[in-house]
Amino acid sequence: MSKRTSEAARARIAAQREALRKQEQRKRITMIVTIAVIVVIAAAFTVWSVRQGASEEATGSVAPVTVEKDGTVVMAKAGVTKPVVDVFEDFQCPACKQFEETSGSTLKNLAAEGKAKVVYHPITIFTEEPTKSNSLRAASAARCITDGRQWLAFHDLLYKNQPSETVSGFSADELIKWGKQAGVTAPDFEDCVRQQRNVAAHQQFSSQTMTAQKLQGTPTIKIDGKEIDTNVAFVPSSLRDAVESAGK
Predict the structure, then answer these.
(1) How far is C-alpha 63 from the geometric centre of its chain's CA atoms?
(2) How many CB atoms are located within 10 Å of the residue 85 CB?
(3) pLDDT by residue (tens digit) across 73-84?
(4) CATH superfamily of 65-246
């Protein structure tokens, strides 16, 4: 092989190597860019998901709250009759606590905006101890309150202080203390709580409600009588959309 031929061969090899190097460099750049795009998309999706599931900030304004004789409690502005959002709940139910923490402020805001009539139906679904007695004590105590705003504040404190399902909780002393924190002014509240005056009425209401509404568990949320999926109820933005759509 002549010197000139040898130099040409080396040049071709060098050119091929350079071409391969540039090709590999382009592949690495493409891979890096692709990974970066995936990371950005994943981050954006995460932010979107968090925002979708994020609880609304309570506006501070609360619609009028009325305690009915049967134990239900209505939260709605004057003249608002629909859509009706029925909330079937048990104060000892962990999922009910989660719903209240996630979507409770959404219901309050919707009622304050005049976009819904919210009706709370406290019931007892538990049949085993200590959860059954815990639930009965809490619900009976709530029935001792006739002022709507005070009832709502007490309602929220019950969930905030919900005991474990494995221990005896919602003692009379605790319920009375939380009543004071909620601003309960009923003069016979303490006696009513200690004597559990409303247990029988609450048990009857629970049984009738569970049968009439064909409830399988709590929380059960219905809009104009139609039960909504938990994927809607537990996602504040979806719950708001469902209620607002029902009101159109």
Answers:
(1) 19
(2) 27
(3) 999 999 999 999
(4) Glutaredoxin (3.40.30.10)
